[in-house]
Amino acid sequence: MSLPRFYPIFDSADWIERLVPLGIKLVQLRVKDRTLDEVRTEIRRAKTICAAHDCQLVVNDYWQLAIEEGCAWLHLGQEDLDTADLDAIRAAGLRLGLSTHDGPERRRALDHKPDYLALGPVYPTILKQMKWDPQGTERLTRWKSEMGDVPLVAIGGMSVERAPGAFAAGADVVSAVTDITLNPDPEARVRAWLEVAK
């Protein structure tokens, strides 16, 4: 499967509404600390925006809502695998991306036949506290050689400047969060990402 090479992650439909029209074709909605009704509203808004711009929306974590709202993609972390109903997710036709941080997690994730695997953090990240050390681009190369056709997403501390190295190391897709949302000009940063990910 071929995926767009640039994969930003935003925590609200507001960000998606602001930046997807610039040409983003794959985006994740990662909502935290909101009520289920609020998350549902965010998913519905994001789905409408993405549909209008031919962009694939990936819902993080909320697998029941993703099914109920007729979404096409879901992303789960390792801890989510313990509680998510993977049979229901597959029966609903959802494509599945999974987070991985080390070899055992990668092997566990591949057992679930994901549609992509995310490896991170590649570099130090300020987004959240991680118990894993930065993996570095060398691990991207090794993992890609062992994963077959499963797309590999590089995440964690990624920037426009670091993206070419991640692609050269074997990443099929590069994901970014704070490199965009903390930039003084997010629109210009997205345009730079779209250029580097051509």
Task: Walk me through this protein's architecture.
The structure is a single chain. The protein has 198 residues and is of the alpha/beta class. The model has no long low-confidence stretch (mean pLDDT 94). It has an eight-stranded parallel beta barrel with strand order 1-2-3-4-5-6-7-8, surrounded by five helices. Strand 5 (95-100), helix 6 and strand 6 (116-119) form a beta-alpha-beta unit. It is 41% helix and 18% strand.
Features:
10 helices
Main β-sheet description: 8 strands, parallel, barrel
The whole-angstrom Rg is 16 Å
Described by its quaternary structure, the protein is single chain
Structural class: alpha/beta
